Amino acid sequence: MYTVSSQQKQYHTYILSDESANSQIEVVPERGGIVTSWRINNQEVFYLDTERFTHPDLSVRGGNPILFPLCGNLPSDTYNVDGTDYKIKQHGFARELPWTATSQSNDGGASVTIELGSNEQTKADYPFDFHLAFTYTLRGNTLEIRQEYKNLSSTPMPFSSGFHPYFLCGDKNQIEANIPSGRYEDNRTKESFDFDGKFNFDQEEIDSVFGHLSSRSTSVVDRDRKLKIAIDYDDFYTYLVFWTVKGKDFYCLEPWSATRNSLNTKQYLTVLEPNASCTATVSITASFF
């Protein structure tokens, strides 16, 4: 049985439940449209820095932040449109702005649709009119995120988009990653390395960027927590990023439509013509074993 309910916490929170699977997610539209929690049989899938979350002036560390209209950062946070320079922060503004819940359903899954539109605040950083509609659907132990991106401008609209899920983990040395690429670039040093499924977790930070993906699916097995995370994504997504920092009990496995600085390099950048739209889908499956 699928149910959708809401609760007033610090923010108005939508709770999607699949009672037969004892699976439940929480969505907070006004805090960047983020999924903050996902519990299966009372075991948490996502990491969340709950103290930081209470401060609306700080970016969220945890859950599943939305990245738009760029993934990563730009040199000097700057890009150019038609001869004019614009400044935009790392990962864009969608994860910081209030979204609006517009519909919900329990037909074939527990789902809620959230929407975000351009305004004067966004146009100061990103001179385009847009409309985003994301639908979160929970079925069993799978969270599906269907996205629609629409250009309401009179000129072509460039962007990239992605997600930054924080997965709660145990002993990182018991993590095995199945990422469909044999090489990655270390974002800190810009060096490239072969990849055999293992990371050196003794480093202070891991920031590995994987391109040339050979599959539409990736996964990580955490043998300490006995949890497998599988992420499926469509052709919209061209990169995966694995990120973590030493001493924190999370890792991030992030599907991106384009890599850092794509607003300047144009590589894998999505460009929508006026009044055009596109769709994309990401599914995350969490399996305790």
Describe the protein in words.
- It holds the Pfam family Aldose_epim.
- It comes from Pseudanabaena galeata UHCC 0370.
- The strands form 6 sheets. An 8-stranded antiparallel beta sheet has the order 9-10-11-12-25-21-20-16, with no helix packed on it. A 6-stranded antiparallel beta sheet has the order 15-23-22-19-17-18, with no helix packed on it. Strands 1-2-3-4-5 form a 5-stranded antiparallel beta sheet, with no helix packed on it.
- Strand 4 (34-40) and strand 5 (43-44) form a beta hairpin.
- It starts with a strand and ends with a strand.
- The protein has helices at 50-53, 120-125, 262-265, and strands spanning 2-8, 12-18, 23-28, 34-40, 43-44, 66-67, 78-81, 84-87, 100-105, 110-117, 130-139, 142-151, 157-159, 162-163, 166-168, 175-178, 183-186, 192-194, 205-210, 217-222, 227-233, 239-245, 250-256, 270-272, 277-288.
- The chain is mainly beta.
- It has 3 helices and 25 strands.
Our count of helices gives: 3
Mean pLDDT: 97
Q: Mind describing the biggest β-sheet?
A: 8 strands, antiparallel
Order of strands across the main sheet: 9-10-11-12-25-21-20-16
By helix and strand content, what is the structural category? mainly beta
Q: What Rg, in angstroms, do the CA atoms define? A: 18 Å
Unreliable residue runs: none
Query: Based on CA inertia axes, which overall geometry fits?
Result: globular
Distance between the termini: 23 Å
Can you give the helix content as a percent range?
A: under 10%
The number of strands is 25
InterPro entries: Aldose_1/G6P_1-epimerase, Gal_mutarotase_sf_dom, GH-type_carb-bd
Protein name: Aldose epimerase
Pfam families: Aldose_epim (PF01263)
